[in-house]
Amino acid sequence: MPFEFSLTCPSEDVVSAVASEPLEDVDDYEYLVMQGCRILSEIGCRFHIAGFGSDDWGFDVSYDMSALIEQLPELLRGMASEGCGDVDFYSQGVERTVTFERVEASYVLRCRSRTSWKPSPDVEYVESRTMERMLEELAFAFSTGLAAASSEISMLEPFRSWRSKQGDLTQGI
């Protein structure tokens, strides 16, 4: 299966006890992402990521997905300015890094594992627009899921602007 990821959330608004908890630090992006992931997990969102020979990386929303969301603005900035970036999927048991390098109309993705799991293949190619669309859709689903749960996080930047698919996903960081 090629490298891919997606976040799916319930289509209706869902009440979240975690979303009603007061936020400790509205200026700490990583904290907000972790809280957001807890909320999305509580309302029943699901995250799927696959690639490099594995049909399912077994990611949960509450913790594993936060590794990607935390690094999303930096990844997008690097892809936009230099045509490259990387994500460290640091969760225990996953422990792999994926690098992204734009070559013409595609991204060359390389996976390096820090566990006994070995990517096969360790290099994949994804059309540029497909990769950019996956990242935009992830940000959009993250923000709209938080809004559906009535989370204050959804009204803070950059999350609020993520609901506009034409918005700058690196804004507010």
Point out poorly predicted stretches.
none
Count of DSSP E strands?
A: 6
* Spatial gap, N to C terminus: 33 Å
Q: Which overall shape is indicated by the principal axes computed on the Cα atoms? A: globular
For the largest beta sheet, what order do the strands appear in spatially?
A: 3-4-5-6
Q: What is the H/E string?
A: EHEHEEEEHH
Structure description:
The relative contact order is 0.19. The longest helix has 21 residues, at 128-148. The model has no long low-confidence stretch (mean pLDDT 93). The protein has helices at residues 29-42, 64-81, 128-148, 159-162; strands at residues 4-8, 46-50, 84-89, 96-103, 106-113, 123-127. By secondary structure, it is an alpha+beta fold. Strand 4 (96-103) and strand 5 form a beta hairpin. The strands form 2 sheets. A 4-stranded antiparallel sheet has the order 3-4-5-6.
Helix and strand layout, with pairings?
Layout lengths: L3 E5 L20 H14 L3 E5 L13 H18 L2 E6 L6 E8 L2 E8 L9 E5 H21 L10 H4 L11
Antiparallel strand pairs: 1-2, 3-4, 4-5, 5-6
Helix pairs in contact: 1-2
